[in-house]
Write a structure and sequence with these properties.
disordered N terminus; alpha+beta; 50% helix; 16 helices; Alpha-Beta Plaits; disordered C terminus
């Protein structure tokens, strides 16, 4: 992928105005999510569903970059997020996204509901069901194949072939849908992706086996076509789990962000406003135990606030009138009134989200190499399979042998791991580091980390876990003279445990 990583995406886009279309048509419904970065320049983050491989990333990016208004376009495969910047005077968002929709991809505005839907597991359940059907069918067909390969008579062999066909053909149709839909969308859009050779191999193997069964042939390969689907679905499901883990970092930010806040009006009235309607200068009331929804300055109240999301320090800080607070911090002990200085996409929490996006989309050296290799791999697979068929047909004169050999080439050269393993590893690593409070601003830093032999920390406080524990000897010594009932049973716990 070309172009610089665009870090302007917010992980928690606000809810659109009432009446806005949640799943817009080709040219309408996206304007509510467009924001202006500076005069004449616009930005939007959308979710692109239906991605299957690295080829889809290149395809989508090339489709939007054809529009002359586009200045930056970056699609993140793991989070399915497409970030776009364009010149407002040269086109609108509907014109830019039309080619993506026409290519068969589902494009949705990036908001709370779409992120939560992406983090849901409907796709995972569908893959798991397809995997279960393929596994059940494969095991039963393999049992039938034992009798066939053990030298059964022709009548018995034909019967078992037909039984295998009755099991395999519906299984291929049902369990192969994730690959067939992706391949159909790719071919409809005039491109090749990694699911095209997979679909071609499965369908050719099943069709050739059915032909052999009708012709009373000695060999049919229903077991191979179904087993191929079974193992491919295992890989597809594991890939789905990895992508879900990659999105979990964004989900963690969603738990910190607020969708709205309680506003104190000038006359003293109290109302609740969505976060996108809160403007600088408003007064926000935050009760004890709530997350602070905005950046601002304390105008009333004294409380202890957990700033660990901001500073990394686990010890709460006491704040009062005049102190600054940031979105994502947690108010612990007392009510506060805060004058808003920034909210929503302009808040500190949004800056963290943009840092995460920058780290996920920055391309390390090995990611670039994998992208380049995957770009030419899918077309090369089809060329090699075609040459294999021609060569074996010329050498043997047996079209069935040539066909099965070409199918074998399609099967063993699936390049999915090549195109996905390195980028997914980078995103998973960034997500796990974020889960432990460490932000990676550049993907190349993960590669450079392999050469590091010494780490210097400037403050020991940032290394604590923020989880106090009871040391039994000290606790027991303090509890013995106590007249209160609580310390003694605590001290009797003769092991290190959380308080």
């Amino acid at each position: 992928m070309s172009g610089s990583a665009n870090a302007d995406s917010a992980a928690f886009q606000t809810t659109p105005p009432i009446g806005a279309d949640k799943r817009p048509g080709p040219a309408t419904g996206f304007s509510a999510w467009v924001r202006e970065n500076n005069p004449g320049s616009c930005h939007i983050d959308v979710m692109v569903l239906g991605l299957s491989c690295a080829g889809c990333i290149r395809r989508v990016e090339s489709l939007v970059r054809r529009h002359p208004a586009i200045t930056h376009a970056r699609l993140n495969f793991s989070t399915q997020r497409l970030s776009l910047d364009w010149q407002k005077a040269q086109g609108d968002i509907g014109e830019i996204l039309d080619p993506v929709l026409e290519a068969g991809y589902d494009v949705r505005p990036l908001d709370y509901e779409s992120l939560e839907a992406a983090n849901g597991d409907s796709e995972g359940r569908a893959l798991l069901q397809a995997l279960a059907v393929a596994g059940f069918a494969a095991s039963n067909i393999m049992l039938l194949s034992v009798a066939i390969w053990s030298g059964a008579e022709q009548a018995t062999r034909d019967l078992f072939h037909w039984i295998s066909a009755l099991i395999a053909l519906p299984t291929v149709v049902y369990s192969g849908r994730p690959f067939f839909r992706s391949a159909y969308g790719a071919l409809k859009g005039g491109r090749l992706n990694m699911d095209v050779p997979i679909s071609l191999a499965v369908l050719l193997a099943a069709a050739a086996s059915l032909y052999e069964t009708i012709q009373h042939g000695a060999h049919a390969y229903f077991d191979a076509s179904v087993m191929l689907l079974f193992f491919l679905l295992i890989g597809r499901y594991l890939n789905h789990l990895m992508r879900a883990k990659a999105r979990s970092a964004v989900a963690q930010l969603l738990t910190l962000s607020a969708r709205g806040a309680t506003i104190i009006r000038a006359g003293g009235s109290i109302t609740y406003l969505p976060i996108q309607d809160i403007e600088p200068g408003m007064i926000v009331a935050v009760a004890a135990g709530e997350s602070i929804p905005v950046d601002g300055q304390i105008v009333s109240g004294v409380s202890d606030v957990d700033f660990s999301v901001v500073t990394g320090e686990s010890a709460p800080q006491t704040i009062k009138s005049g102190n600054e607070v940031y979105a994502g911090a947690r108010n612990l002990t007392g009510p506060l009134e805060i004058q808003v200085t920034a909210a929503g996409e302009n808040s500190f929490l949004a800056d963290i989200a943009r840092m995460m996006e920058a780290s996920e989309q920055s391309k390390a050296r090995y990611v670039v190499l994998a992208d380049r290799a995957a770009r030419i791999y899918a077309p090369a697979v089809h060329i090699i399979a075609g040459l294999t068929f021609i060569g074996w047909l010329w050498a043997s004169g047996d079209w069935r042998l040539a066909l099965f050999t070409a199918v074998a080439v399609l099967i063993i050269t699936c390049p999915c791991a090549l195109g996905l393993a390195v980028p997914v590893a980078q995103v998973i690593a960034s997500g796990r580091l974020f889960g432990n409070g460490i932000f990676v601003k550049d993907g190349a830093a993960l590669e450079r980390l392999a050469t590091v032999d010494t780490i210097v920390f400037d403050k020991t406080g940032t290394l604590t876990l923020g989880e106090p524990i009871l040391l039994p000897p000290n606790g027991k010594a303090l509890a013995q003279p106590s007249i209160f009932p609580t310390p003694k049973p605590v001290a009797r716990r003769n092991k290190r445990s959380p308080i």
